[in-house]
From TrEMBL:
Record bears the keyword Ligase: no
Domain TIR: start-end pairs: 1-128
Keyword annotations from UniProtKB, A to Z: Membrane, Transmembrane, Transmembrane helix
SUPFAM superfamilies cross-referenced by the UniProt entry: Toll/Interleukin receptor TIR domain, TPR-like
Classification via Pfam families: TIR_2
Protein name, entry field: TIR domain-containing protein
Presence of keyword Hydrolase: no
Record field: transmembrane: 154-173
Superkingdom, natural source: Bacteria
Signal peptide: none
Amino acid sequence: MVDVFLSYKREDATRVGNLVAALRETGLDVWWDEDIPPSAPWEATIEQALRAAKAVIVCWSPASVSSENVRSEARVARDDGRLIQVFVESCKPPLFFGERQGVDLSRWRGDGDDPRIARIVECIHEVAGGEPVAASEQPKARSFGLRGLTRRHIFGIVVGILFLLGAGSLIAWRVAIARPPPQIAVLPFEDLSPTHDKAYFAEGVAEEILSTLASEKGIKVLGRSSARQIARDADPKVIRASLGVTHLLEGSARSDGNRLRMNVRLIDTSDGSRLWEEEYHGSLGDVFAVQDQIAAAVVKRLRGTFFESAVKEAPVTSVDAYQSYLAARALMREPKRETLTQAWHIARQIVDSHQDYAPGHALLAATTWLLADDPYSYGTIPVDKARRVAVSHAQQAIRLAPNQADGYAALGLALLPPASFAPLRKAIVLDPSRSSIRNNLGIDLNLLGRNDEAFDQYRLGVEIDPLSSAMVNRYVASLAASGQGEAAFRAIDTYVRRGGDKAQAWRFRGFANSLLGNESEAIAARLRGLALDPQLPYQTEWLAMQFNLLGFDEQEARYRAGLSPYLQLFLADDRGALRARALRDGAKSWSANKFEYAIFSLARARDWPAIAQVYDVRPPDLRDLCVRTPNFAPFIAMALERQGRASESAHILGCVQRNLTQQLASPYRSPDDAPGEPELWQASLFALRSDSRAFSWLSKAVTRGWLGQYYSGSLSDWPQFDKLRGDPRYTEIQRRMDARIAKERARVLAMRGQLPPQT
């Protein structure tokens, strides 16, 4: 004789299975139809188990309420006093069952220690001991009639009822309006494949669902970088407190041969309960339909309505190509040359074998550009070639799938601003969950001096994806560059408190201190970050430049290997080789990483013919420097003026002044500028006109932390100030710079014993 018989509907099997496991852990003998042997007669076995059970648990849900079999089993148990009602999903029970007590498990997450499980066990023992579970005490309604009431009384009652209904509706409407929209985090699905080698597939499927949910209005979706960093066993309440997430979507994917099984759960983070759980079976070819079904079911739970009209038609291809695409995308999460090269090869194979698969073209475009020799990329492909290939494949992706974000994102990544703005904004609309697109848009806005708009992109990106290192880095750096140091460090502390990577946090502190002019603190932070993670991007480059500025030649030389050829030659002070390389590279030099060091080296030598020669071979998209004014533009203007090209020189200086006026009037600065750099260039323009206001602007630059970063701390190396020599103010400003450099150098020496060893 078994202790408990479970009656349920097949659609609720996953949730009921969790209940079976929890009850069995308490020592109870639980029977459900999963225990029926394959050869046994189905109906007879169920009937026999139902008669033999000491207690019967009926698991109510909308599906089981409509099941005649479940209702019949419930009636048998009710009639002989063995019925225990459990609600695995919110619903109204059948007629004549609503007056009985029931345990609400609609938000139960499967925890066997939950008090509700203890209550069910207690009820089972009561029923087994011959004590039927009592019906709920229902207060009797007091009857009354309208006899004896006048029309005035009735009219007053009706008016009062209408007033209360109206007021209640208004209050309910205001509460609904004030209630913030639900925010969901889609966690990477767990790989349950037999060989456990499909993690990229499980995580990629989750990301596809995330992208679909992100396009649904009224639901906020946590960015994918942040969602990937949430541990599967994390306390939902802690996640809610740190990231503001109201719901978690978690699950698993299992593929074995051509078979696919996916289990998905929607969790309420307020109490960790399960709102919904479903399991999907099919072939791998069904994966695209399953993704849409899961997204629709989640939205139904969060909003109460399906969003069939909002679901975008996804590009469909073979499952092999889709799995390869997800594998390449997983490799791209670690942005370095080796992993990006592997992703590029996969993308090339996808495009060669599946010409009509839009995500493959977008993937090839993005990886090609990320392997370019560009300051924001990681490879050595000449920029002009990388741009040409990337743009071609991105445009093909858009033609094949005009309602998908991937093609627009890749196109915006490869184009120069302002041409990049439109495709990047389109990609954001199509997939708001991808903070990396906002990051790319912000960088391009900074390049044109539109720093307020750029800061808005970084701020929104951090709101969407608060654990994204790329977004937090640009956001923190923008605050620091704008003189908001306290806000910058608070943002870093918030990132750490939310569970952000500690090595990345030191990277952020290093960047922020550099922009605030605290070179010694920046060096200390970068060394601490590298001690935690030797692969932190760009840190060796920064350390080499900072040690060079402060006169630590031995330390700087340790970081020289692997840097851009232009920066290596500059740090080695090989001016002849820098000149030769810039002239030999010609137009290609303009897109080379750290090319500006060659221009500064030529300006320091007052080699105006060489600068003019480099300027004349610039690529077509930089024919007019007003479109994208580089920081070394004043040096080019000086070279042209000395070559007798006064009108061209004046045109460039006018562009620089307009750009500076816009930047200096803005409350936000570009994180790509050195501390005080806008003030430096404003001083330069006044100095070229022999205007004495140059001294006040140069003083402002030094006050904001400018020490010649990261070229030279000697004003004599900056030719625009040649006319100011001999003035006592020039000497005083140089004295201040020397004193600050000596102070920063002394701090580094004093911290040596406290810093991690340099590699």
